[in-house]
């Protein structure tokens, strides 16, 4: 019995969701299931290759819905959960009770945890710490920008590894460990430490690069990371550098996409008024009300700058 799990790759909540979902399936439905994981990334061409659904059961967690008939399970909490109107209709007509969506949850892992408990009677108290941290990390529930950058807790260190590691193999190893081991054990693994240390040095470098490139106007911080191979940055750096800012817009090219990130300051002096997922959806992206992104094809730097400039203007108003 092969259980294929498609999860949001390079995301702490995506990995935690895959881990908790796997425990639910093994603990309640298929004790003998063999799990295989596929990391999903947001790209300019947002389509699900039918070949992805090669399991006896196929699941998607913390990622967009698919109308593929081979999809067995779906859990998501993103505002932008559907690629198009047809997918939303398809979801509404589902009668399996196994396609579950609730955008009010701060993390998909906590959503799966609650559904597992309330609907399927599955409890695994040893996962409670993982659930708690998925809410803190995906929901940006840190005390301050400083605390978000210091990476004091094992879960925050692990987030750096999950977001920054090359390829999906190590993320999938972590998904396996998350099912059975406390986070402090996982971060202490020599293999994880070897990945963590250079990423932490780069994290400190990223603070300086963003400091040198970012500027703030009317509460909006903007920067462009083109030409700097940073492979992502901690999204709270701008709020540490510009504590009075409300929003951040950035452009960061990588090998497989040109990404425009749009975020809001969790510690902003004024409450953010714009829904960032709705703004990003207009340009083919999506996300949550407080944080969103748009993925353009690789090489579309000029277009990304134009889109970013439009969003900056909109957020400044
Ligand atoms: Mn999530």
Explain what this protein looks like in three dimensions:
The structure is a single chain. By secondary structure, this protein is α/β, with parallel strands linked by helices. Helix content is 43%, strand content 18%. The protein has twelve helices and eleven strands. The protein has a six-stranded mixed beta sheet with strand order 6-7-8-9-11-10, sandwiched between helices. Helix 1 packs across helix 7 (169-178), helix 3 (108-120) crosses helix 4 (128-138) and helix 6 (154-164) packs across helix 9. The mean pLDDT is 95. It binds manganese (II) ion.
Structural features:
12 helices, Diaminopimelate Epimerase, Chain A, domain 1, inorganic pyrophosphatase (n-terminal core), 6-stranded mixed beta sheet, binds manganese (II) ion, alpha/beta, 11 strands, 317 residues, 5-stranded parallel beta sheet
